[in-house]
Amino acid sequence: MVTYIDTFGDYETIFRTIGLIGVLLYVGGFFCLCTGALDSRSPAYFGLVLTAASCVLCSLAVDFNLSAALIQSFYIVMSLGGVLMRWRLLRRGRRPAPPVQTPPRSQDTMPMVAVTALRQVS
Questions:
Q1: Buried/exposed code over 58-78 (b: 16+ C-beta within 10 A; e: otherwise)
Q2: Domain coordinates of the chain in residue numbers?
Q3: Quick one: pLDDT at residue 108?
């Protein structure tokens, strides 16, 4: 009996490729997050993590690993929660709180501990 998945040929390669796409989504999302191209409070970020985790979880159908399956399931649940919370806020007309901005430190300032230590030495 021929199953639907057998019509695609080597299904292991397909699932592994889906897993690699998930890894690329994780890495690309983290790169965009670090460079400021993506905001961690946006639904797009949670959608990206949800898609990446789903892809990696699909690849575990070929090479199952309980620890990896649990962490990917956690990412899926948390991402769904994040997307729902952000969309609910946006639907109500409220935006998520902006991130806390720390003032830039100038190069010539020293921490107070160092200043106190220098005063005691002198």
A1: bbbeeeeeeeeeeebeebbee
A2: 5-97
A3: 55
